[in-house]
Amino acid sequence: MHTVEPDVVTDVLIVGSGPAGASAALALSTYGVPNIVVTRYASLADTPRAHITNQRTMEVLRDLGVEEEVVAKATPQRLMGDTTFCTSLAGEELGRIRSWGNDPLVQAAHELASPTRMCDMPQHLMEPVLVDAAVARGTHLRFGTVYKSFVQDDDGVTVTVEDRLRGDEYTIRAKYLIGADGGRSQVAEDAGLPMGGQMGVAGSINIVFDMDLSKYTAHRPSTLYWVLAPGATVGGIGAGLVRCVRPWNEWLIVWGYDVTAGAPDLTTEYAESIVRRLVGDDEIPVTVKSSSAWTVNEMYAETYSHGRVFCAGDATHRHPPSNGLGSNTSIQDAYNLAWKLKLVLDGTASPRLLDTYTAERAPIGRQIVTRANKSIGETAPVFEALDGLSPQTPEQLWANIAARKDDTEAAEKQRAKLREAIAFKVYEFNAHGVDLNQRYSAESSSAVVPDGTPDPGFDRDPELYHQPTSRPGAKLPHAWITCGTRTLSTLDTVGRGRFTLLTGIGGAHWLRAAGAQDLEIATAVIGPGQQYEDPYGDWARLREVADGGALLVRPDGYVAFRHATAAASLEDAERLLTGAVRRILGHG
């Protein structure tokens, strides 16, 4: 048992103020759970880092009340535009792919899938939104505070931290500890979380700079410009990435280096030379703001917790930025964990509920690490189409690129091959299913109650296409409904830290059964003349249950329990719903 009096006491201590830590704090404070965030740094993120913010994350931010602020500060979806492949921004264009929902057919799918829109929200703008809202709602934030170690017992975790300003150490006693301390997580290491995969599979350099590139980019707006840069030192060919941070004068370049030889000396002159090479214009003034080296990783945690210690974000899944999955998955990890901690801390749920965090999120983490690394490999065919992977002189590569314009049978085949290779990048730049098809299995998670129906799987490619369903373990489908003169999403009827029971005409037994539970359950009745109406008929098409059927939706918007028809009696409704609630809360 804990005997030494700690210096500070809280319910949840969060190590790290990045997307995972900040969103965990925001959710916990929104739910009324006391929490402290410590970060070793003196400020929040000062570089853009993560940026793609997908629809599922925007739904989370919508529920946590910060969606509008993010939209106001982000680059909108329409300017995320067409991923462009070129020899330099000023040079030849090799092709484009409509990306991030900007293909007309994909845009329609985005509008059908969610009330939110994806956007480009750089991390140095996102973190203040999350942290400011968390602090305003009760989070205590400590900068310059280094996590040193933890000791846990049956009742809590005692964490030793160092105050970098004063130079002394003190202890924080928490009931639970969240390690959101990034890709080199000390908390994950100290907790002994087993990892799969490997670190340091390739080397990369980030260069952040200011440069007015509007004459090369405004007419073809994009978040990403891929540059085939002949003469690079790595393997005879380099693919550079020019990423828009703020249209069209703030940028970030990603450039590779040979990880076996170590990172180059990141002087201002070196950084400027890379910028000039990828932009292809020596006249425009440039200001290099920062440069840093990092490694591409392919690693995932097999378990996300040990006792009262939980990890989230890059501490548990480490991968390249392909597909823009990093901060999205981190925020969704925290959102999954926060409501479970809240219910356990207030005595509503058994600590067994917390076992479902690993059961639900670890498979997602592994999936996105695999997908992000696979996307890197899927870029190679673009270069293969130009015979650009075999060692050769820059002059030969330029000749290969020029040859695609010839009026020959070989050139026609080359053009077709290049078009096909660029089009295949849809798996990175328009993977709508990867963003929205995350489902939790009732076989592994007790917070999902099976309804006895066989899983029909997916009708189309589950990475490319979102397929809404009300099956337990899936995200509640979005449909526009009305309440008086207001139009709102079905997603707006759920969340806010509580369970919600959705039903329709004929669902009276379900409503009474929900009111009889020891758990707070909000209710939403959708149908003609009811609390909510379905004027378009969209909900009736998507709900997959009858008017009198029921869906019990968790605080994170996932369906936990489904019954296809009206309950035969109040007793039946109470028996079924009580059994489901007991299973979910770990009392079954």
TrEMBL record:
Residues 10-372 form the FAD-binding domain. Coiled coil: none annotated. One of its GO terms (molecular function) is monooxygenase activity. InterPro entries: FAD-bd, FAD/NAD-bd_sf, RIFMO-like. The keyword Amino-acid biosynthesis does not apply. Keywords: FAD, Flavoprotein, Monooxygenase, Oxidoreductase. It comes from the Bacteria. The keyword Transmembrane does not apply. This is FAD-dependent monooxygenase. It comes from Streptomyces gottesmaniae. The lineage of its organism: Bacteria, Bacillati, Actinomycetota, Actinomycetes, Kitasatosporales.
